[in-house]
Amino acid sequence: MPVPFEAIIPMGLVVVMFGVTGTGFSLAKRMTNEGKPARHSLDDWERMMMNRDERLTGTPRGQSMNPTAPKEFATNSAWQTEKLA
Question: Which residues, other chains included, contact 68 with Cβ-Cβ below 8 Å and sequence gap of 6+?
Fold first, then answer.
């Protein structure tokens, strides 16, 4: 049984709108990740390295080629201070 030609326009609109929203969402995700693909299934090591990169460069996706850390890196520790009794 053939599809009536009147269904082509609404179906085309649905397909186009899914494509537009999918592309927009993908673009928004890439913009928030500095143009890099989103990360999935992060383990503890990757989270620790993201934390280190954020402390070194200011962004979780940024990386530095400088072999020595800036002097501020020595005092902005990832460990929170605790009051001992």
Answer: none
| Helix, strand, coil % over all residues of the chain, rounded to 5 | 55, 0, 45
Over residues 35-72, the pLDDT tens digits come to: 888 888 999 999 988 888 888 887 888 887 877 877 77
The domain segmentation of the chain, as residue ranges, is 13-57
Report the C-alpha gap between 37 and 26 in whole angstroms. Answer: 9
Mean pLDDT lowest among 6-15, 37-46, 48-57, 74-83: 74-83
Model pTM above 0.70: no
Number of H helices, E strands in the chain: 2, 0
